Amino acid sequence: MTAPRSRTTQICTYAGSLLAAFGAAFPAISHAQSTSFNGTVALSSQLIDRGIAVTPVTPIVQAEASLNTSSGWSLGLSGSTEARSFGHVTEAIADVSHAWSLSSNWQMQAGLLYYDYPDNPRAKAFDRTEAGLNWIYRDILTFGLSAICVTGNEGDHHPRGAADLNVHWPLAWHFSLSAGAGAAQSLAASSYYDHYRHEYVGRATPLYGYGQLGLLWNYGPWRVELDRVAVDPAARSRLDGLAAAPWVATVSWSF
């Protein structure tokens, strides 16, 4: 017998449909506005997501492309694959967002993202739709709040939340300092099926903390970054091998 769809499952489905609708509507928006196209290719030592290791420590090839309008709309697509199994998509992300100015120094951005891990059993349970709201100060400081609906955990679609704070501080000789800290509710399964009530019953979703401190070097289209990644000790033991490596390196080229 198939369990009835919960209210939160319907919300996740609606959010995914809304993202598809935005994507379909974007060509009409971009046709009426001046647009720009941007892309990035990168090679990283590991793919991480809020302190969670999406892949083992191995070379990761990444590609990202985005269309941006002068009115603040942006549509982006990105994909990643392990170099040793090139062609198998370890992570794919689609996002649509809109940014607007609050003052000469502050801007705000609202966005909707969909994460999919089609060829990645390690992270398949983390497929999700995520709605976010960010406040940005002069490209130096960003604070964001996210509401998350996990679609990869069968029967466990209870909403999660996350908060992130990131700082990017320019230094001399093309160097910059980057730092970030955040807290999120675990994306791992947090419910079970009650056969007496014929429904999924939620439990408290553990909250964990994470952060990184890094040094960046930018020169023209090139960027080299080395980050020290940290996850709180209690979460590291719960993640059982999914905690990110202490150091992550990335080299990228943008066009």
Can you walk through the features of this model?
The chain is mainly beta and 255 residues long. It has a single domain (7-254), classed as Beta Barrel (Porin), CATH 2.40.160.40. Helices cover 13% and strands 55% of the residues. The strands form three sheets. Strands 1-4-5-6-7-8-9-10-11-14-15-16 form a twelve-stranded antiparallel β-barrel. A two-stranded antiparallel ribbon has the order 2-3. Strands 12-13 form a two-stranded antiparallel sheet.
Q: Helical element count?
A: 2
- One letter per element, helices H and strands E, the order comes to HEEEEEEEEEEEEEEEHE
Q: Based on the structure, what is the oligomeric state of the protein chains?
A: single chain
Write down the overall mean pLDDT: 84
Provide the CATH architecture. Answer: Beta Barrel
Largest sheet: 12 strands, antiparallel, barrel
Can you tell me the residue ranges where pLDDT is under 50 for at least 5 consecutive residues?
A: 1-11, 191-195
User: In total, how many beta strands?
Assistant: 16
User: What is the molecular shape?
Assistant: globular
- The fourth-level CATH homologous superfamily is monomeric porin ompg
Helix content: 10-25%
CATH class, named Mainly Beta
Radius of gyration: 19 Å
Quickly give the structural class.
mainly beta
**How many distinct folded domains?**
1
What is the strand arrangement across the widest sheet? 1-4-5-6-7-8-9-10-11-14-15-16
